Amino acid sequence: MKHNLLFLTVLFCIVFSTAYSQTITSDIDPEKKYYVGSSLWVAYGLFLDPSPEFYQLNAGYRIDEKNTVSVEAITWKYLNPLGIPYGPDYETVETQYPGAVQGIGAGLSYQRFLWKGLYGQVHSVAFRQNYLNDRDKKIQSGFQLFNTFRVGYHLEFFNHRLFIEPSIAATWFPIQTNFPESFQIEEDRWNKFFFGEPGLHFGINF
Questions:
Q1: How far is residue 125's CA from residue 9's CA, in Å, rounded to a whole number?
Q2: How many distinct structural domains can be found in the chain?
């Protein structure tokens, strides 16, 4: 799934940049302090079966031209441990839980612009995790702390009204509690981190 999303992200950015090459910019309008946004994952998940049921909403504040903070609300559902690296075991039926994990969380993010539109960003989201059996019924609940370290590029267009942020990220989830024993057996086989997650955030400045 992430391979396909990476391809779509690159394709989207090439097509979009070509179409709006006369108006696109990496500059940030200092008058537009606030933004709301989301992630391409939301739209991409609508075409998958089973769907990850991923939804995200961000609300941010630009402290100055270099620093941004935001709050995030995220919910998703996944079938495989998050630490499985790209390769033959990635998102296969053989590595699935005997059910699914549904996460509902909220978190904070800090973004620092390094050079023009190039930025680094850190996210930390606290999730309540519901563990579901193969009939989609909740067995029990737990907690997850999910951290993301992201590098990307910020592009604005339509007179700084809209923006997109293609990126690549590493994720780290050091705290995960109360897994059902049957889920924990599969979880213990894999890392508590993942490298190379593609992303494409977008939003509206105001």
A1: 23
A2: 1
What is the CATH classification number for the domain harbouring 31? 2.40.160
Cβ-contact 1, 8 below 8 angstroms: no
The greatest distance separating any two alpha carbons of the chain, rounded to the nearest whole angstrom, comes to 56
Q: Which amino acid is located at 9 in the chain?
A: T
Residues 31-51 pLDDT 10s:
899 999 999 889 877 777 788
Backbone φ and ψ for 22, nearest 5 degrees, come out as: -80, -20
CA distances (Å), 92 to each of 11, 84, 153, in order? 25, 10, 32
Structural domain including 133 reads: 2-205
Averaged pLDDT, 121-144: 97
What is the value of pTM for the model shown? 0.89
- Averaged pLDDT score across all residues of the chain: 90
Q: What is the residue-wise DSSP string for 27-84?
A: ---TT--EEEEEEHHHHHHTTSSS----EEEEEEEESSSSEEEEEEEEEEEESS-TTP
Return the higher-pLDDT residue of 189 and 1.
189
